[in-house]
Amino acid sequence: MRIATWNVNSVNARLATVLEWLEAARPDVACLQEIKCVDENFPREPFESLGYNVETHGQKSYNGVALLSKYPLSDVCRGLPGTDASGFEAEFEQARYIEAVIECPRPVRVGCIYLPNGNPVGTPKFDYKLAWFDRLNAHARDLLAQEEAFTLCGDYNVIPTPADARNPEAWTDDALFQPESRAAFRALNHLGLSEAGALGNQPPGSFTFWDYQAGAWQRDHGIRIDFHLLSPQAADRFRGIETHRDARDMDKPSDHVPVVVELED
Fold first, then answer.
1. pLDDT of 45-59, one tens digit each?
2. Ranges in the chain, pLDDT < 70
3. Residue 256 near residue 208, CB atoms below 8 Å
């Protein structure tokens, strides 16, 4: 059971690249972030032709998430429960979360996350990031109470430790590396979730994002911000993790690369 997470940075702009990778890697489930289109403009047919069932939670020009599964999907939920810092209903504008149960022989629930970036620090955008983290924490608590196998995977937009950046000094003023962001990520882990990279003993330098600017890819100035957080029941089934670094060198690449977790069926 192979579950991939990948911020594709516009599914329509990079459709050929995404399809090429899916055909080669053949994950059973793919969680896509930053699809950058409304639901009706998502290119369903090419993915369905590869055998995937498709569920989306889109938004015009920005954000947006999608779940692709070779197995049937049930209990599909769009949007994260709760309210934001301003009291508005959760996901009132920003499509950042979709969740479903993958009906494989041993079902697993998958939550696909595109956490807010939060820049610039000191603005409502950073407040929204932290409030979104709070809602995710509360939802994770509810899921853990159900004692089922699940992964909360995606682009967390947080650099948890200095070891997760080639050049941590370059990120000192960025929302991804603020103490509050890192503390929110730790709090999520401390609920009892297992970070798949730690379970798989991934080596330092297992980055998942390289900016398009300043030759970041060529100089390997990467950061690790894409994660799978596994419930205890999913961690019991953990068999390995792969970061598909080569995807950053494909034609018309995303600035992120896929991260694939393997669970026992």
1. 999 999 999 999 999
2. 83-93
3. yes
CATH fold for domain 2-263: Deoxyribonuclease I; Chain A (3.60.10)
- 10 Å CB burial of residue 219 (0-12, 13-18, 19+) is exposed
> How far is residue 91's CA from residue 225's CA, in Å, rounded to a whole number?
22
Amino acid at 122: G
Classify 211 as helix, strand or coil.
coil
Helix boundaries (H) for the chain: 15-25, 44-48, 124-145, 179-190, 196-199, 232-235
What angle (nearest 5°) sits at the alpha carbon of residue 211, between those of residues 95 and 255?
55
Amino acid at 116: P
Helices 124-145 and 179-190 pack at an angle, to 10 degrees, of: 10
Residue 44 DSSP class:
H
pTM of this prediction exceeds 0.85: yes
The residue among 150, 115, 80, 165 whose CA lies nearest residue 7 is: 115
Q: Where are the domains of the chain?
A: 2-263
Question: Two tokens at 158?
Answer: 């947080």
Task: State residue 91's pLDDT score.
Answer: 44
Burial of 111 (0-12, 13-18, 19+ CB in 10 A): buried
How far are the Cα atoms of 17, 94, 155, 249 from residue 218, in angstroms, in the given order? 19, 33, 22, 10
Bridge partner list, 175: none
